[in-house]
User: Fold this.
Amino acid sequence: MASPKRVTGRFERTSVGGEEVAAFIPKPLPPDRPALLLDAALTRRLRAAETALARLELAGEMVPSVDWFIYAFVRKEAVVSSQIEGTQATLVDLLTFEAQGAVETPPNADVEEVCNYLDALTLARKELASPKGLPISMRLLDKVHRRLMRGVRGADRAPGEIRRTQNWIGGTRPGNAAYVPPPPHALGDVLSAFEKYVHADDAMPPLVRAGLLHVQFETIHPYLDGNGRIGRLLVMLLLEHSKLLTKPLLYLSLFLKRHRDEYYRRLTAVREGGDWEGWIAFFLDGVATIADEAVASARELFALVAEDRARVLGQPGTSIVALRLFEVLPRHPVVTVASAMKLVEATKPTVGKAIDLLVRAGVLVETTGKKRDRSYVYDKYLERLRVGTELARAR
Ligand SMILES: Nc1ncnc2c1ncn2[C@@H]1O[C@H](COP(=O)(O)OP(=O)(O)O)[C@@H](O)[C@H]1O
Ligand SMILES: [Mg+2]
Assistant:
């Protein structure tokens, strides 16, 4: 390894599971000795990322139905952020579950994890939006973590609690771990320094600050599990808090999934080589790339809906109910007869006819091949929306 650019923390020998390991205790943010260098190249990247975010913000303001995109993009983020560390649920699994309703089929553990992520994000945004709510703080993150870890998989992983034991990342045991985070006794100090930096009044551009805080959070690894997801959710909250993007439209996790090895390598390089600049360059590229993709995707989806609306209107025998059903599809791209009956408040025969019409118009496709309990999918819409959310790792 080349000599480090700067020292980002210290090691402390500690014993875990009968083995001696060196746990890392990070120095407080911001990077110092030397201070983070925003040279011409990084500044260019920063401007590109900010401009792309501003375009996404504007796209959100111009589209009359921004709630479609919030609905869809937040789900995309939730699915992909969960997939990064192994959740085996796709966007289609999530939307199918949401269409069928929890009463008919309880979610499997993977879909439940994604639903928890959505609830956790909603909870956090509500707290931040309410005058009486919590600010971005460890108290808030604990609360969000508790929500994220609810149910089958999280229950034994101390939901909502800062860990009291030593953990490690990568490897089968502490001795061969890729990384050993701070020992529990050090967490109080590093977390209060972390929290202080969230609200620090220095000249650091907010987007850079969000990047720094994400790494610091992963380095601290304050929970027994869910650190990756909470750390990525934190980025969304910081962007909204700093008004860089006032709606959760940026599914940055897709970039981190696409470049997962580099993502992990760069986290390590900050710790071992003090390479904050390398991480920030990667992070800013991610923001710019995904913001551009989200704008393009929103445009494409919007154009598709406009085109299909014309087809539904032109379809012989078209009805008000068919049109009403069509209008809810962007928020419910998977429907069943039962879910459609609720959405458009119509009887089964009427809804059946509307679905048939949308199938004839080439909008809905029946995907189960079954005679009963059929699901209908707005196929062309989902086809575009789900890019990158498949399980095979995108390369
Ligand atoms: N070498 C590393 N150094 C620091 N953090 C890492 C490293 N490798 C992975 N991570 C982070 O740890 C996360 C996984 O931690 P975990 O608590 O299991 O989170 P989750 O359950 O949400 O996936 C990864 O998503 C990544 O953000
Ligand atoms: Mg995990």
User: Anything to note?
Assistant: The first strand starts at residue 9 and ends at 16. The pocket of magnesium ion (ligand 2) is lined by residues 85, 225 (CB under 6 Å).
